[in-house]
Amino acid sequence: MRNILTGIKPTGMPHLGNYLGAIRPALTMAEEKNVEARFFIADYHSLNTVRDAELLRSYIYEVAAAWLACGLNPNKVLLYKQSDVPEIFEMTTILMAFTAKGLMNRAHAYKATVDLNRSKGLDDDHGINMGVFTYPVLMAADILLFDTDYVPVGKDQVQHIEMAQDIAGVLNRNYEEELLVIPKSRIDEELMSVPGLDGRKMSKGYNNHIPLFAPEKELQKTVMKIVTNSQGVEEPKNPGECNIFALFRLFASETEERALAKRYRKGGMGWGEAKQNLFALLNSKIAPMRARYDELIRNTEGIDAILTEGAMRARRIAANTIRRLRRAIGVG
Ligand code: TRP
């Protein structure tokens, strides 16, 4: 059995980039043979930035509902909320003692914030709380506590997995070689590069995203905002240089993809029509999931029940690892 695990930070309704780049590949991976999948909602990672209780609560439900609506089967895949598993925080305390401060200084996300502060003439530490600084330790605890073999993540998270490997290595060298499983990242190159409305990587931060479960009318309006060049209807067009096409092919069958590429090259199809095609395809794929999502959000007790059951199962696994560690380090 190989254990795969990934965390989803609740910071808003997932968008198409999250779906194609994280949710869909992770759910496909969970279907593989001999795989035990654990997906969790990293709510204490969000607390570093989300300071509105009502907002955080609704983000947590949105993320849980999105995974369930996209096909996560809670009987097969373990789904839980990080804050429901206190063993994670004991694990974090243990790992802190073995984490070099210098390692944290090198974290890309932290360094980027320091650089931004400097460029604005602010103090290096401006706006940086200890949760942000120690983010990689909590993430290592998430991963190592569950004896994780593979972590499906985007490229931006690879350094965090390397840090988890480093920290686990320190404990293994100090106590016993197989105390902690050394995790590996798994990234799907093609699916990672989902373009947003303006052609840059789709990201909430760039505000170029397409929300996954927006109502149909809103989805259509958002698709119509995709940026194109100014070629006229009659001109032949290059599908390889078009945001609309780049998104279309991520959902289309090979036949649908080839048919649309042919229409691009022939000319006679304007951008409005191309967008309409994309919207129709997207909506046909999303509509059944959107219906499930709306249903789940209308009755959050259903989500609560799934998360409570998930936490119970997660804590059983976590308690074993913590017992093993407590013995190894000399407190148990
Ligand atoms: N840092 C991840 C992100 O921002 C979320 C996360 C938290 C995570 N803990 C994790 C991902 C453990 C994988 C494994 O997307």
Describe the structure.
Helix content is 56%, strand content 7%. It has 15 helices and 5 strands. The chain has helices spanning 16-30, 43-46, 53-69, 87-96, 101-105, 108-119, 130-133, 135-144, 158-174, 189-192, 216-223, 243-251, 254-266, 271-298, 300-329, and strands at residues 2-8, 35-41, 78-81, 150-152, 184-186. Strands 1-2-3 form a 3-stranded parallel β-sheet. A two-stranded parallel sheet has the order 4-5. Helix 12 (243-251) packs across helix 14. The protein is globular. The two termini are 28 Å apart. The mean pLDDT is 95. The structure holds tryptophan. Tryptophan binds next to strand 1 and helix 8.
Beta strand %: 5-15%
Helix content: 55-70%
The set of bound ligands, ions and cofactors reads: tryptophan
Radius of gyration, in Å, reads: 22 Å
Write down how many β-strands occur, each being a DSSP E stretch of 2 or more residues. Answer: 5
Q: What global shape is seen?
A: globular
Mean of residue pLDDT values: 95
Q: Helix tally?
A: 15
What structural category do the secondary elements indicate?
mainly alpha
String of helices and strands: EHEHHEHHHHHEHEHHHHHH
The main pleated sheet reads as: 3 strands, parallel
Roughly how many Å apart are the termini?
28 Å
Poorly predicted tracts of residues: none
